[in-house]
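pls read this stuff:
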Amino acid sequence: MHIKLVDIHNCRARAHDFAHQYSLQFIGSDDPEKSVDRLIDIYTSYLARPRPQILELDIDFKESAVYSGVFIKDGHHVDICIAKNLNLCWKRFAIAKEVFHSVLDEEEFRNMNINEHLQSVLNDFPSEDAKPNRSVASEWLTEMATMEFLFPYEKRKSELSASAHGQLNYRNIAQKYRIPQVKVERYLSAEYMENLGKTI
């Protein structure tokens, strides 16, 4: 997926900004498993915004291609909706991702036609060659910011170095950071590490 370099720099900078605030405000901030509740505390206090409401929808994640969404009202009031029966790792990831959706929100990233947006995401998100519209690009950027907060690039490099002479245990790494294993596998892949490394 082709994403503007300036957007990548901005989303990484915002994630690092939140990670820095996290390290300043909380004891045990070096624990690999970052607290999503504390992320919300930072969002609320640091940005001086109302605390997001988290709503569980009566939709099982197994029955939907979408596991979460965010509704931003009046620019600041946020409702985060998540599918029911998400496991802990997916619930943490989903909530953090929607928080970063709000953090990175710009008018140009919005698409009020939800069906059109979802179809574009499903078509473009898996494609390496896709040139996404701005609302689809925002999905990739918020995921990147979420991973940069929960499992930063430097931590990924450390995990790769630690297992340089052995096979990566993705399950153990996912449990260590409490994030979905599929995200660990994607973000530790040679392609992702190489491409993200070029943006630093």
